[in-house]
Each structure stands twice: as C-alpha cells, then as structure tokens.
Design goal:
By secondary structure, the chain is an alpha/beta fold. Helix content is 25%, strand content 27%. The protein has a 7-stranded mixed sheet. Strands 12, 13, 14, 15, 16 and 17 form a 6-stranded antiparallel sheet that branches. Strands 3-4 form a two-stranded antiparallel ribbon. Helix 1 runs parallel beside helix 6 (160-184) and helix 5 (119-125) packs antiparallel against helix 7. The longest helix is centred in the middle third of the chain and has 25 residues, at 160-184.
Length: 311
C-alpha cells in the first residue's frame, strides 16, 4: 500500500518501522521541523532520523494547515492511506480527504477516554492500572473518529517512558494488523460514545512544580507521569531540585509543614506531604547530574527540618 506517514517523537518510530518492514511503500514522511538544541546544534525528530537513515522522503511543515505547498506535496504522492502517530498537528480537511482509504491514527489510550495531547500522562496521573492503544479513523474533531481496533496494557507502577515504549510497540503491531483488515474489507468501524469521553490536555512546565500539600500518592503519580518532562521539581535554598524516583508512604503524625524533611536515611530522605510522605530515592540538584538520593545526601548538607518550597 502507498502510505504517507505523519509522526514526530520516539512513540511514532515503531509504527513507521513496522510499515517499512512490512513492505509498504512509504512515499513521504511528514514530521515536525528541526529544533535548535544546546550550543547551536540542530535536533531532528526521531521520526525524521529513521526516515533519513532509510532514504525516505521527508516534509517538515511548520503548520500544515497553512502550508499549501506541503499539502500539495502529500496530494502528489497519491497515497492509499495516511497513517498518523503523535504527529503534533491537527490535520485539515483537505488532507483528510486525500487518501482513498482515509487517514488512520495510532492513539495512546483506550478511546473515547483521554482524547487529546497527553493520554499516557493522564492515565498515570489518574491512577489507571490499565490503558491501551486505539487505531481510529480520523475526522475533523479531536480524536473523535470511529474506532477500528484496540489493545490493552497493564501500566501498574510504570512511568511515562515505560508506558510510551510499550504502547508504541503494541500500537505498531496493531497498526499492521488493522491495515491488513482494512485492505481485506474486514475492518469493523465503531462510533465513539461521546458521553464517555475524557480530555487529556497539553502538559505545561508549571505542572511539574511540587505542591507538597497534596497527598503523597498524587505526587508519586506525578513523578512517574512527568519523568521525561517537565519533571516533578521543587526548590531548596533557592535552587531547583528534580525528583525522578519517589514512592508514597504512610507516616506518623507530625506538626511539620508540608515540604519539610522528616527523615534522612542512607539511601533516601522523606518529605512531609498533605497526606502521608514522599520517599525520595533519585534526584537532580540544579547544575548537577541526576543521581541516587544516597549519593546526593553524601555530597549535601541536607538536614531534618529543611523545607522545600515553590519560590
């Protein structure tokens, strides 16, 4: 099948790789523009890296909706299907109408739950034990199209990097199976129940700022959801501290304010929360490398009674 693929982050790469390995003709890969990195280095998306490595044509419109030339480049490919996986832009109707088999999307949730930009984050934040991936037919609404197939994944205790990696592989396998069913005319299209839908909004840097008046179990889920970005973080003595590995625990009564260090051990330290306490096991101090709490403690002057704040 002649396919135009649209995707950007690492989540999308297994889907593109599976399409390539299955022998589909990837006539064009559409991805987000290169971004500036540290020291002037230009960083291409993981999807573009795969495309370049495998000699695939690449288009990088800043805004596909406003880029007539990019739309015409897609049209010129005469694709049978457009496959989308975490592209990062909403497709306009003139693109949705191009392929004869339509546009399908690899979405990281069990629709209609968690439509939107951060389905995997929200599944972790809300304490879900199971999420999944859905292959859906795209329409003009935000993740509102008919569902074609889905697969579940147990995410108990997993962080975003683990969930994203496992779902991306699961989605890639499901994608190949679903395309085969579409070609054979055996695919079943199921309308979503809008009454059951939930929304997964964009994640912002401020979402990672720790409010220790929240329950410890909420902060533990935030640490797992935000491990890649913006990272659960707070301030100590005016310097930012990022928390990478934490666990919630019950703790005896204490009159200390939330954010106060209650206990210091060889390999962790414990911080008072609105309910329970947070055991900090892996951190990164401003200007330092990421390290175990034990290494951090050996090089710091942290004391019981010190308090994290939000500046």
């Amino acid at each position: 099948m002649n396919i135009v693929f649209m995707g950007t982050p690492a989540f999308a790469v297994p889907s593109l790789a599976k399409l390539y390995e299955a022998g589909h003709d990837i006539s064009l890969v559409v991805t987000q523009p290169d971004r500036p990195g540290n020291r002037g280095k230009v960083i291409m998306s993981p999807v573009k890296s795969f495309a370049v490595e495998h000699g695939l044509a690449v288009s990088q419109p800043e805004r596909l909706r406003r880029d007539h030339a990019a739309v015409e480049q897609i049209r010129a490919c005469s694709p049978d299907m457009i496959v989308v996986a975490a592209f990062g832009q909403i497709l306009p109707k003139d693109v949705l109408d191009i392929p004869r088999y339509g546009c399908i999307n690899v979405h990281g949730s069990l629709l209609p739950k968690y439509r939107g930009a951060s389905p995997m984050h929200c599944a972790i934040l809300n304490g879900e034990t199971v999420t999944g991936v859905t292959i859906m037919r795209m329409e003009e609404g935000l993740d509102t199209g008919d569902m074609i197939s889905s697969a579940e994944l147990d995410i108990t205790g997993k962080d975003l990097l683990q969930v994203s990696s496992e779902l991306s592989d699961l989605g890639a396998d499901l994608l190949i199976q679903t395309i085969r069913e579409i070609e054979q005319g055996t695919a079943v299209y199921t309308k979503q129940d809008d009454a059951l839908s939930t929304y997964a909004p964009m994640i912002h840097k401020a979402d990672g700022l720790t409010d220790f008046s929240e329950p410890a179990e909420v902060l533990e889920r935030k640490a797992r959801a935000f491990i890649e970005w913006p990272t659960l973080h707070s301030y100590l003595g005016g310097q930012i501290v990022k928390f990478y590995k934490v666990s919630a625990t019950e703790y005896g009564s204490s009159d200390a304010e939330p954010g106060t260090i209650l206990e210091i051990n060889n390999n962790n330290f414990i911080v008072k929360c609105g309910k329970g306490a947070l055991v900090i096991q892996e951190v990164q101090m401003q200007g330092k490398r990421r390290m175990s709490a034990g290494d951090f403690l050996r090089g710091s002057h942290l004391r019981i009674g010190d308090r994290f704040d939000s500046l």
